[in-house]
Amino acid sequence: MNDTIALSEDQRDALQELMNISMGQAANSLAHLIETKIGISIPKITAVTPDGLYELVSHHQQAYYTRQSFMGDIHGEVMSILTQHGLTEVAELLEYEQPLSENDINETILELSNILAGACLAGLSEQLELATNLQMPTLFAPQKSDFSQYDWQHSLVMEVKFDIQISSFTMRVVFCLDDASLTRLKSTIDELLG
Amino acid sequence: MNNPLLDKLPVGICLVNEAYEIVYLNAFFLDRMPVELRGDALGKPLADVFPEQIKFLKRRIKSVFVLKHPSFSYWEQRPHIFPFKSSRPITGEETQMVQNMEIVPHKDTETGEQYACILIQDVTAQASYFKAQAQLAEELKAEHEAQRKLIRKLDRAQSQLIQAEKMASTGQLAAGIAHEINNPMGFVTANLNTLEQYAQNLLETCQATKKLVASHAPEHIEALEDLFDATHVELIEEDMGPLIQESKDGLKRVSEIVSTLRSFAEEPQHTWGYLNLHDTANQLVQLISTQFKRPRFKVTCEPDQLKWYCESASLKQALTNLMMNAAQSIDENGLVMLDIKQTSSGGVAIKIVDTGCGISEANLKRVFEPFFTTRPEGKGQGLGLSVAYSAIEKHKGKLAINSREGKGTVIEVRLPVLKEQEEEKSASNPSTESL
């Protein structure tokens, strides 16, 4: 593993805790908005290569993908993987009328990604006192992208899974940070750890 | 909020408070609103000004107030959120503005009040460019597909040409061989006739000698008879006639085959004229039966000696291919029938019936495809039927095939009457249909 990526155990624990809190806030916000219960998994923090990232995001056959970049003090991209199953129920919670058109489905996917990714990022930034700015999400097809062409070797990935309990819908949010942001993140965590 | 700079921005700004009332509109936003809404929009509930969009807007604004982070809407999913006119009323193709929307939370630092700030971006130009690109891609795809079809057709035409070329050179080869065989055949036949005469003379000499000895030197007759016995003269006498007759028959057959081959192969290519279908059928059967011994062949033609205006080379080729297939389909005993009949409409119906192995339903759909064959590799090119098909098309005819696996196959060729002018027409536009 690349040295710039390696987090010490303390750093990793701290980051995991921070993620946990911000994810919890995100889940709460969404639950509040759509008035339903939402479960979250314990965040996983790993370092990946482009191939590893591809493995991570593309092993779901029946899934929708979005990506969204964020800028500010830290810089990176959020990828969301949404199961196709259960999306109709979630769209209904978001007050879309049945039957869903293709545009409705795409809008639901983008909206959900934006809400969850946005909430996660907002929570994390707030706790780390970093300013971030989320850009517009877009639909993404990992199958059509060539991950091996990416010009980075390692990336820190924070992954969390949300379950919306009234349907079997799940969604995973994967945060990827570039090297410079990682250095910034580590120093910020170190400050917090004192 | 009333910063004049905001009126210079190329982005529409609409500020909404927590009661969903409009509290600010910048110039970009105002200028694009329908005239009747402009005057008194400020301070009004959003629902009154934009009643059609309110459901969607409220949902998004609510999410911004609750989550405190931006909400986005992309033109591809929702192109016209606000009823704004296109920025190009004169030269633009779109009449309505295509919009990207972003709603961001805004907190007044002095009062602490929460606002949702709706930002509208005019992406009409990008969207129409994008749509044009997408349409272009569609067109390219369609063109690509059309070209692929054309290439397939060209491939087919090419393979047929190759086949025709091959047949032509095979024909030339056959004619050459026939000529070469004819020469030795000439002297072998002549010599055999002479030999027959000589042998006859020798036998007669033997008989005469026997008579002479019997009458003039009877004491030697026994010795002579012993000599004749030792050289089997009696047997030779008996056997000679049939042996020579058999050889003559053989030679006759060889010369018949050679002349059929010549008359069949030496036909100049692509000439239209009258062809005796009856003779052709007989010649064809004669040729094929030398190659395929198992099936019985039967030719019928009505009326007798029917002559037909056609391009003889290609029609013969077609019939050859069809007959070869029929003959090849028979493993053991079987019958191949070639039936030619003039129809009441003046056209001709040629039926080729065999009692061979037949064609399965799945294969039947594909028999006219070039290179489709069920024979093992190297045994057939799978071009026979497609060549026959295009030859018959050239004669504006129809080819129908009917088959039952294990029972046999019936192929029916129907040719309409072609007069000389029509032939010119079809020749000037030769087989574009089949291409």
UniProtKB/TrEMBL annotation, chain A:
List, alphabetically, the Pfam families matched.
CheC (PF04509)
Q: Which UniProt keywords apply?
A: Chemotaxis
Which CDD domains does the annotation name? CheC_ClassII
The CheC-like protein domain extends over 11-44
Which PANTHER family did the record assign? FLAGELLAR MOTOR SWITCH PROTEIN FLIN, PTHR43484
Q: What is this protein called?
A: Chemotaxis protein CheC
Species assigned in the record: Alteromonas oceani
**Source taxonomy:** Bacteria, Pseudomonadati, Pseudomonadota, Gammaproteobacteria, Alteromonadales
Automatic annotation (TrEMBL), chain B:
* Residue ranges of the TM segments: none
Per its record, the protein catalyses: ATP + protein L-histidine = ADP + protein N-phospho-L-histidine
**GO-annotated molecular function:** kinase activity
Q: Which Enzyme Commission number(s) are listed?
A: 2.7.13.3
Q: Which domain of life is it from?
A: Bacteria
**Stored Pfam families:** HATPase_c
Q: Which UniProt keywords apply?
A: Coiled coil, Kinase, Phosphoprotein, Transferase
Please state every residue range assigned to the domain named Histidine kinase. Answer: 176-419
For the keyword Kinase, the answer is: yes
Task: Look up the coiled coil feature and give its residue ranges.
Answer: 137-167
**Signal peptide start and end residues:** none
**What name does UniProt use for this protein?**
histidine kinase
